[in-house]
Amino acid sequence: MDLSGLALGLETALQPSNILICLLGVTLGTMVGVLPGIGPTATVALLLPITFNFAPIASLIMLAGIYYGAQYGGSTTAILINLPGESSAAVTALDGYQMARQGRAGPALATAALGSFFAGTVATVFVALFAPPMASVALKFGPADYFSLVVLGLVISIALASGSTAKALAMIVLGLLLGTVGQDLFSTGVPRFTFGIRELYQGLDFVSIAVGLFGLAEIIRNLEHRQTHSVIPTKVQGLWLSRDDFRRIRMPVLRGTAIGSALGVLPGGGHVLAAFTSYSVEKRMSKHPENFGRGAIEGVASPESANNAAAQTSFIPLLTLGLPVHPVMALLVGAFIIQGITPGPNVINDEPELFWGLIASFWVGNLLLVLLNLPLIGLWVRLISVPSEVLFPAIIAFATIGCFSLGLNPWDVYVVAIIGVLGYFLIRWGCEAVPLLFGFVLAPLLEENLRRALIISRGDLSVFVTRPISAVLLSLALVALVIAILPAVRRQRDAVFSEDE
Amino acid sequence: MSEDPASSGTAGRRPGVPDMLAGGTFVALGVAFALGGRRYGIGSTQAMGPGFVPVVLGVILAVLGAFITAAAFRGGDPNDREAADERGPVPWARGGMLVAGIVFFGATIEGLGLAPALFVTTFVAALACRGVSPLKALAISVGLTVLCLGIFVGLLQLRLPLLGDWLGG
Asked: Do B98 and A219 touch (CB under 8 A)?
């Protein structure tokens, strides 16, 4: 194991200014993550413009901090008011909320924090171990291989998503198409689908797309409800775990960490799958499975660890292949590009300080989360009661200012409205927003590598099956697609996603 | 995103309608992208024109949309039916106000400047929420405008004019 890299990273991450940035990130992330009706993806999208003035490493440390801070905040609401911030926290809500109702909110929150910290620490080591070899493999990839890799990533993200495969595929393709808007930079610079509007020549901005899909569309969805339901969160007292609690969570945390680290690298829903899988594993291994769903502390410890471990290892494909596996990672790709860095196998060699600094900052961030959040939990709880008539206009305000300030381009604001409306209706009709964002972010990578590969092969399409790496990746994609379509597997998968809901 | 259990829609069973709408949308968008993409030149596989990828993807989207629509006639996805049952009606007026507020911001940010544009946008957005009186919306929008000016202009020093050309700023 290459310890010098990690040492360099710690040195970078432990610079006072970077610690401060990380603190700011996790605090903001937790704060917004606690607010109901807004998940980590929307949080990162909304706060992304704030970071553009920073140095690349500071900007990425902060965004990553916002991401896992928001996830942490999501778990807090899952436990306290049974309102998971995102799908992976839904598992935490099962037993966490029950614990809160039994007056054990404190231990539940502490378990989530400690489990997350442990898992985050261990998974960070995994990232440090596996990322460099992955990156050196990725450097051997030609354009055809990259094309196939993107196809594989997109297909796996459907296979892991819940709901209709056809609709998820269609959303991906729609995302890819939206990604082609703007000048065709690969060859001629022809403006595509711009309707003569100069402001669209640079393409649609991914922040606008994300804010439209995860901010505006979500708010319109919330306006469907006739009454806004006010929630009175449980009082939190007695944060500390008893000796018995520690004994009970020890193994679930370890297993959750292992499952999460492994599944985190899967595109699309690795962290969700990790949380669900580790929960059912614990339930199966427990001597008292009947306690699960009734406030079993193991049912909080294991999915929270898995979730957080997956959050860390999901950086491996991003940092080594440039392939985002989580919607937030997709936003980070954009952040990298705005900072002038192409995420991919070269990052580790060209920007070692950034690469290792970011990884080390995960650890710093997780430590800060434990130190910060347990004492401040009372403060976060109060945020839950922010009324929606203040929250929604605030989101709209941040979204519009943020998107406009990206390029002082009014069209970035109009795109929020257009995508928000389109996204609202498609989501209402049973489609998912995440595949669209994936498709949108990966569209340039897909098109560029497709066209480059075919130029190299002189238009011979067989290059995708004759190159060994590409052939393997494509056949894996085919297998994943078949699995996603097979009815038997579908039923089982739906069962995984709807278990105990 | 969280599935909110608290909605109280009582819409009757409409088998497959959401699927038909989704499928139809995909077909329309796919055809539009494919037809539009043709104008940019398709080229050949050896030297792809700028239109190649959009045309291929547009056709794929239209085919997927047609498939989804066809499947909808056979009853549709049971999950969607449950989801549709839970939901209230489309909030046309309130959603429309939000969208109008955002478009207003984009259209007037340069002319009016940040402060007035943001004030109107947050006012309309607050008014779009249930049970908010104009006076309350006024209070919310004033508060948010001051807060956002503080964060974006004061703290982050984004170079956005507070008052635009139209107001002599």
From this structure: yes
